[in-house]
């Protein structure tokens, strides 16, 4: 009889634990552990939970929260290049781009990176995005069209190096393709004085096509 009571108690405890885990408590410290963690609503719980302000202090985790829960331990840092590169909510925009730290380089204690107005929730797919802008020919997104943009394009095409923040920016001749002719176009402009990259040009920013492309381009 005592053995049965023990099993019933254990079962009840397991049920309670499961209920507790499904209504996951929000760690107030965790918004501080991701870049721009409090930019959306000032508190930041909504980055990981479906309800930012439930009456009893916690709510089920959204898709980003579920991903974090796999590796996070209490208030220990967990932000990483791998987590930045992942797309937890499956909307085509990596977590790091949504939080304005595409490379996952931000460290706890550093100022928030990027443009806070562009921050979106990495756990909620389909949020409206601010229109992204780009400079034609500035493939490496450092704010200028230079020799390094040509080498960036060649290394990206032939060696798979680098992160292409905006395909339109690297499409220097604006023909819709990204290939060796874009690197040549930049070189001819720089060293032979030929025509600059077409609209919006190398010195002005112009709107990119709607969608996630150019979302992480940050020199405009
Ligand atoms: Ca996403
Ligand atoms: Ca550049
Ligand atoms: Ca092209």
Features:
2 strands, binds calcium ion, mainly alpha, 220 residues, Type 1 dockerin domain
Number of domains: 2
Bound molecules: calcium ion
Please indicate the percent range of residues in DSSP E strands (runs of 2 or more): under 5%
First CA to last CA: what distance? 73 Å
Helical residues, percent: 25-40%
Q: What's the helix-strand series?
A: HHHHEHHHE
- Total strand segments: 2
Question: Regions with pLDDT < 50 over 5+ consecutive residues?
Answer: 11-23
Shape: elongated
- Provide the residue-averaged pLDDT: 83
Task: Determine Rg (CA atoms, Å).
Answer: 23 Å
Helix-and-strand structural type: mainly alpha
Strand order of the largest sheet: 1-2
Question: What is the tally of helical segments?
Answer: 7
Biggest pleated sheet: 2 strands, antiparallel
Textual characterization of the structure:
With 220 residues, the protein is mainly alpha-helical. It is 30% helix and 2% strand. It has two domains: 2-118, no CATH class; 133-207, Dockerin domain (Type 1 dockerin domain, Orthogonal Bundle), CATH 1.10.1330.10. The protein has helices at 2-22, 63-69, 81-85, 95-98, 147-159, 167-170, 180-192, and strands spanning 133-134, 206-207. The protein has a two-stranded antiparallel sheet with strand order 1-2. Mean pLDDT is 83; it is low at 11-23. The site of one calcium ion has 8 residues, from helix 5.
């Amino acid at each position: 009889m005592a053995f049965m009571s023990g099993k019933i108690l254990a079962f009840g405890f397991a049920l309670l634990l499961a209920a507790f885990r499904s209504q996951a408590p929000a760690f107030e410290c965790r918004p501080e552990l991701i870049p721009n963690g409090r930019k959306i609503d000032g508190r930041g719980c909504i980055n990981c939970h479906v309800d930012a302000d439930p009456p009893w202090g916690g709510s089920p985790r959204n898709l980003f929260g579920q991903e974090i829960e796999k590796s996070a331990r209490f208030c220990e840092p967990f932000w990483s290049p791998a987590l930045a590169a992942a797309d937890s909510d499956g909307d085509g925009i990596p977590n790091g781009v949504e939080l304005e730290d595409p490379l996952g380089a931000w460290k706890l204690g550093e100022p928030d990176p990027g443009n806070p107005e562009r921050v979106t929730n990495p756990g909620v797919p389909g949020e409206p995005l601010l229109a992204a802008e780009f400079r034609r020919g500035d493939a490496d997104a450092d704010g200028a069209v230079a020799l390094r943009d040509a080498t960036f394009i060649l290394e990206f095409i032939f060696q798979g190096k680098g992160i292409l923040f905006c395909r339109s920016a690297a499409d220097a001749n604006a023909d819709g393709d990204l290939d060796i002719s874009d690197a040549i176009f930049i070189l001819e402009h720089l060293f032979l004085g030929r025509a600059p990259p077409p609209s919006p040009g190398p010195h002005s920013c112009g709107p990119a096509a709607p969608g996630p492309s150019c979302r992480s381009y940050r020199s405009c």
